[in-house]
Amino acid sequence: MFPGLTLGRRQFSDLSEQEVLALAISSEEDDARIYRSYAARLRKDFPDSAKIFESMAAEEDEHRKRLISRHQARFGETIPLVRREHVAGFYARRPVWLIENLGLDRIRDEAANMEREARQFYLRAAQSTKDAATRRLLGDLAAAEAGHEHIAEKLERKHLPDDTREAEDRAAHRQFILTWVQPGLAGLMDGSVSTLAPIFATAFATHDTWTTFIVGLAASVGAGISMGFTEAASDDGQISGRGSPVKRGIASGVMTTIGGLGHALPYLIPEFWTATTIATIIVFIELWVIAWIQNKYMETPFFRAAFQVVLGGALVFAAGILIGSA
Predict the structure, then answer these.
(1) Which of 159, 184, 218 lies at the terminal end of a domain, its last residue?
(2) Is 162 exposed, middle or buried (0-12, 13-18, 19+ CB in 10 A)?
(3) How many domains is the chain partitioned into structurally?
(4) Cβ proximity of 82 and 22 under 8 Å
């Protein structure tokens, strides 16, 4: 219920100029490695796409060399170990195996996202340094990453000639998913699943619909507040590009509360078995809605998403009933 906590992480605003350069160096190393993995994955079936990713990896290598040279000139040979996972709210790269198995379209889109996020980082990093040469280098790299983003978009248009979406529409859609869909989906999953056990345990332990409703209401509202504040506090969106933390917090908090209230509200019905039957039906509707959202917006195969969500929800549901009936 508390994803994204940043204990032990540094805020980007607290990094020194040397640490910002070290972070940029490690990020370029990671991105070059990811692009080469994409190229290897695509080389057999999509050789033209593989060449583009190889070229992008070579560009990342060149960026890394320029950053290392600047670090040597400013701070010497010893580069601090600063990586993405050390910085709160810094954009994260998905593991390659989660992307490559979903096909070429997803890899193209992921590449565009990578370059967009890298550009935002360099723009922010340039604002944090007072050294003119370092600022100029970071600004140049931001421009170069923007160029890479256009390359990735051209790659998509080349292989999908019938696709008439404009770049602005794609960017708006990506932002909608990052700001609203992802945190909302996480909240809906948490609210729907995590409240199952306490609600149904209370129901079968007491057979009192009003008590069950009060427990469900408290669990849902409490989970919504927790998820909302956690989402808003975990990432300010400036580097990750995920958008306003307030919007993401609202999406996560509201959907968490809705997920829990869905199967708590039927217990306003005084008759126990009627309320329980309706609540059970609503639970399975909620789980199928979660699977549908994952399929539509997160490109998760529907039956795999349904199996994971329904199985997990059914286990929690059964645990609540067993505990309440003990």
Answers:
(1) 159
(2) exposed
(3) 2
(4) yes
Please state, in angstroms and rounded to a whole number, the distance separating the CA atoms of residues 254 and 19.
37
Q: How far apart (Å, rounded) are the C-alpha atoms in residues 155 and 271?
A: 60
8 Å CB contact between 131 and 74: yes
Segments forming the whole domain that contains residue 49: 10-159
Is the same domain home to 233 and 133? no
Integer Cα distance of 113 and 106 in angstroms? 10
DSSP H stretches of helix in 79-208: 96-100, 104-128, 132-159, 167-176, 182-194, 196-206
Closest CA to 223 of 196, 253, 193: 253
Which residues partner with 11 through β-bridges? 88
Question: Encoding tokens for residue 117?
Answer: 């996020």
Instruction: Confirm if 138 and 122 have CB atoms less than 8 A apart.
Output: yes
Which residues of the chain register pLDDT less than 50? 1-6, 160-166, 168
Q: What 8-state DSSP symbol labels residue 84?
A: G
- Give dist(CA 160, CA 141) in Å, integer: 29
Query: Do 82 and 26 touch, CB atoms closer than 8 A?
Result: yes
CA distances from 255 to 25, 46, 89 (A): 38, 40, 22
Contact, 117 vs 76, CB < 8 A? Answer: no
- CATH number of 100's domain: 1.20.1260.10
Residue whose entry in the numeric block shows the structure tokens 């790299």: 141
Q: What confidence tens digit (pLDDT) does each residue in 157-190 have?
A: 555 444 434 454 566 567 788 888 889 888 898 8
Q: How many C-beta atoms surround the C-beta of residue 233 within 10 A?
A: 15
Please tell me the predicted confidence (pLDDT) of residue 3.
41
77 and 198: one domain? no
Q: What distances in angstroms separate CA 50 from CA 47, 101, 104, 150, 304, one per listed residue?
A: 5, 15, 10, 16, 29
Residue 158 has what pLDDT?
A: 57
